[in-house]
Amino acid sequence: MANINCDTTSLSSSPMQAISDAVTIDETSSKPTIGRGYYPALIAASTSMWAILLGPVLSTIPNQVNTLAPHNKVAALAMVTGIAGVVGIITNPLIGHLSDITNTRLGRRIPWLLGGLVVIFPVSLLIGHSRSIGELACWWGLLQIGANMLMAPTSATIPDVVPEHRRGMASACLGIAAAAAPVLGTGIQTLLSSPHLVYSFLGSLTVLAEIIFIFTLRHDRGHEPTAPKVRRGIQWQQLLPHSTDFWLVCGHRFLFGLGQNMALAYLFFYLQDIIHYATVHPGQSTDDGVLILTAIYAPCVMVAALISGSITDHTQRFKWCLTIATLTFALGAVLGAITGSWSGVIVLAVLTGVGYGVYASTSMSMAVHLLPDDNRRARDLSLINVADLSSIALGPVVAAIGIAASGYSSVFIAAGILVLISGALVLRTRSAH
Fold first, then answer.
1. Which of 118, 330, 344, 393 could form a Cys-Cys staple with 416, CB 3.0–4.6 A?
2. H/E element holding 256?
3. Which CATH code for domain 16-223+241-427?
4. Distance between CA atoms of residues 41 and 45, nearest Å
5. pTM
6. Which has the minimum average pLDDT: 25-39, 128-142, 338-352?
């Protein structure tokens, strides 16, 4: 991969042409190279996708749950997010596998990206009108399917078209998107208020951003998979990757994500019930507090992701960056256990933001570096997505049990411990520096 020609000076100076020709083919190596349009398109597509997944979880869905089941809101929220998480866990690897074996004139990834938009847009018009917890869970589960049709192919474009020495920055783009998405989602919630308008706006934005991203992939055909030897029966041992390091990364991402989601999933209720934000700040709502915290959290993630992504691109060393990430995030989580003030929560947002930013760019870059099979990129990255989605699904459930048993402080401490364990798993990998 080191000999890939990444010179983009031959690209047209026209912005529109730069976007449409963002992925070109090197005539001497027959390998795809990226142009200037790929990175902003990747950020826009990933931000809109995560905004419609993370934004509602932080604010819109808790508000809907609060309206539909005010006396059982914690358990109801756990049920809605848990069901959707199970749906995501099942569909993501399936879609990743199907994307790898898809062979059309549009390539492998584009048909699934278009299919995801076909699912997401109509669901986004209906979910805001949910009249019961069961209906909300149903629509939210369908939305996960549409999002997974975007998620697996989008992450697979990084090893498909990005040279190895640029993948840290591409992974940083995903980290930036994950940070910007909650701000976008909660900001839209604050401005529009109505769940129907929030989901409709986010659905429309996702369609627009993904179409732009698709234009940057018009030359991506990947490479033809190596023809497998004909054998009788199903070779079950070939269905999953055989790489200890890769599975260690999956475990690392699951534990870090579980800790993160335990610490942040009930941020709305934490501000409402513990910090009493609306009382401390007359004239403001708890939604305003969530928006302020995400607005602080997001820039910290973005700056940390860009710096760590650039460093890993130059050094190809991942472990020490991830050690810093886990220590910083864990410190922020433990702070949540001992603070009871708004100023303390702001410091928590800064520390967890920096920790997550370093983690987001470095961990994904390391995962791409450790992919065991070039013919099964989307399948293997979908397993990374499953680890992430599992943590998103289980985080609120585990946190709800912890809150019911011993309050928010124990949940923050447990989250910090899980993040530290995730860092220990990274240190056990052998193939990554």
1. 330
2. helix 244-264
3. 1.20.1250.20
4. 6
5. 0.71
6. 25-39
